[in-house]
Amino acid sequence: MSRSEHIGTNGLPLAPGLGDVPAAPAKALGSRERLVELIRERFAGRRLVVVSNRAPVLHVRGEGGRLATLQPASGLTTAMLPIVEACGGTWVAHGGGTADFDVTDARGGLGWPPERPAFRLRRVRLAPDVERGYYYGLANEALWPLCHVAYVPPVFRHRDWAHYREANRAFADAVLDELGDGPGVVFVNDYHFALLPRMLRRARPDLLVAHFWHIPWPNRQVWGLLPWAEEFLDGLLGSDLLGFHVQGHCGHFLDTVDRALEARVEHEYHRATRGGHATFVRPFPISIDARAFTALARARPFEAAFPGVAARTDGRLVLLGVDRLDYTKGIPHRLQMFETLLERHPDFRGRATLVQVGAPTRSVLPRYAALAREVAALVAGINTRFGTPGWRPVLYLDEHHDRDALAALYRRADACLVTSLHDGMNLVAKEYVAARAGLPGTLLLSKFTGAARELLEASLINPYDVEGSAEVLAAALRLPDAARAEGMRRMLSRLERHDVYNWARRLFRSLDEVAWRREALGFPGT
Ligand code: ADQ
Predict the structure, then answer these.
(1) What confidence score (pLDDT) does residue 13 get?
(2) Which helix (H) or strand (E) holds 382?
(3) In whole angstroms, what is the distance from residue 60 CA to residue 70 CA?
(4) Residue 426 Cα, ligand 1 centroid: separation in angstroms?
């Protein structure tokens, strides 16, 4: 255990009881086992197919043509991987790695992990212009800003729309090919595949289809800006169950359908019916595998994972930011907040270091490239203004990191700063709580995240209010360690009960209810 883990923010050794929460004893039946049991019992005989744009692993050619694997930084794959590992089935995803198809069978699939395959990964090949239009264009320059309402205008190109349809078609074909004629449950993920549920329903009305939308759903006026608003809604209403992180987004969705489409919306039953088919719309707040993340964070010493950072922060407070470099995460606001903290509370100068980890993402898009430049300039500005020969205020690590290294960094951090301008959930906040495992900590959390509805002991901020947020941060850092540990422990205990398996179990239980209803109504294929 590193030195910092025994020392509170006030520099005094931790009182007994403020330390690490001991590893929880194994329960009779853990949440992972309960999920697997539910799927075996209720969906026996149906093949499970999970669909997402991003794959859990990419194959690339490294130096000298050596084959290497990459695990992308993504909230979605973080959440889905343990589920698919537990339940088996097929995961259909874009094959975006340079060597992805060097290792697959003739249909583009492979067992994963190779040494002991837990599921089949089916990769979908997209032509470069289709990928550009569907992923970078429609998904990330149109839908992403439209849904997050972070004051970045969406861009609508008709060519992107054509590519989006084409990509959805390619994924639908892959799903149908994997299923053959057999019965199936398809779990579609995210805004990349709004048209997929309708395509699947047309081809195979007997399939059970769930769709989970990982980002916010805006109000109907904002959604109405989308030139293809009706087509998207119709596509999503091909599913049996549509999930969002929070009730507010479900309400927005039903309200949007009510105004924009020929459909019957019954708010009291949380459903919309179109062409005789009902789609249930419910909140399922996503989570992480908290116990596994705690174990990961304990496994690797921070000093070994980040020797350079360890040397520069020894004996100092570490404030941590972990994000994909995305404008919705409010990274410039966070840097300005830290600058304000140093300006107004000089006792933190020389004593606190902000470690900002920013994984590059969607960098070919101009808005993302501009953000990377803005962040680098802000970091340089703060370091020039406040830095001293022995202290660099901001350490900026603008690269992807392995999960075990990241976990060690979270564990070392005295505070984690989540300043999203809007976020469906935000798993970083949950990973921090799990990594600290009851050690004193400060979670500064934007109230515009789904996570803010659950992590009630966090210090909530409005990131647009930079000065106000800096004051909340200063006050939170000055709280006694007993209070900082108590809050973290409470959040951890809730997180352990509501982990990612529990999330999936609730979702599949709802899907099971839908299947019963369909059966009772004599729906095809049940
Ligand atoms: P994201 O926008 O990707 O997810 P988030 O939920 O915070 O956001 O997840 C990010 C994940 O990437 C975390 O697991 C984090 O550890 C990892 N990560 C971040 N930076 C990294 C780095 N430098 N190196 C390696 N890993 C890094 C979307 C929605 C969220 C929603 C999730 C899940 O935008 O609101 O919580 O999906 O539904």
Answers:
(1) 43
(2) helix 366-386
(3) 7
(4) 7
User: What is the distance in A from the centroid of ligand 1 to the CA of 361?
Assistant: 11
User: Quick one: which atom of ligand 1 is closest to the CA of 424?
Assistant: 35
Q: pLDDT value at position 400?
A: 84
What is the C-alpha to C-alpha distance for residues 458 and 465, in angstroms, rounded to an integer?
17
In whole angstroms, give the CA distance from residue 446 to residue 424.
Answer: 12
Report, in this order, helix, strand and coil percent for the chain, each rounded to 5: 50, 20, 35
- Determine the residue type at 454: E
- Which amino acid is it at 152? V
Write out the DSSP string of 385-430. Answer: HH-BTTB-SEEEE-S---HHHHHHHHHH-SEEEE--SSBSS-HHHH
pLDDT value at residue 18: 56
pLDDT of residue 522: 78
Ligand 1: which residue has its CA nearest to atom 19?
Answer: 323
Of ligand 1's listed atoms, the one at least distance from the Cα of 322 is 20
Atom of ligand 1 nearest to the CA of 357: 23
8 Å CB contact between 143 and 167: no
Beta-carbon neighbour count of residue 332 at 10 Å? 17
Give me the torsion for CA of 302, 303, 307, 311, rounded to 10°.
110
- pTM of the entire predicted model: 0.94
Give the span between the Cα atoms of 158 and 140, in whole angstroms: 14
Q: For residue 225, report the phi and psi dihedrals to the nearest 5 degrees.
A: -70, -25
Instruction: State the pLDDT at residue 5.
Output: 41
> From atom 9 of ligand 1, which residue's Cα is the shortest distance away?
75
- The Cα-based distances of 73 to 31, 310, 325, 460, 479 in angstroms read 25, 23, 11, 25, 33
Tokens of 7: 């020392």
Beta strand 184-189 with 47-51: parallel, antiparallel or unpaired? parallel
Residue ranges of the chain with per-residue pLDDT less than 70: 1-28, 523-526
pLDDT in tens, 37-91: 999 889 888 999 999 999 999 999 988 889 999 988 777 888 888 889 888 899 9
- Contacts for 438 with CB less than 8 Å, ≥ 6 apart: 19, 20, 21, 485, 488, 489, 492
Q: What is the dihedral of CA 431, 435, 437, 443, to 10 degrees?
A: -60
pLDDT of residue 523: 67
Q: What is the pLDDT of residue 23?
A: 58
Beta strand 264-266 with 271-274 is antiparallel
Cα distance between residue 381 and residue 394, in whole Å: 10
Selection from 325, 421, 418 nearest residue 368 by Cα = 325
Residues 168 and 131: their CA atoms lie apart, in Å, by 11
Which ranges in 88-228 belong to alpha helices (H)?
128-131, 144-148, 158-179, 196-203, 220-223
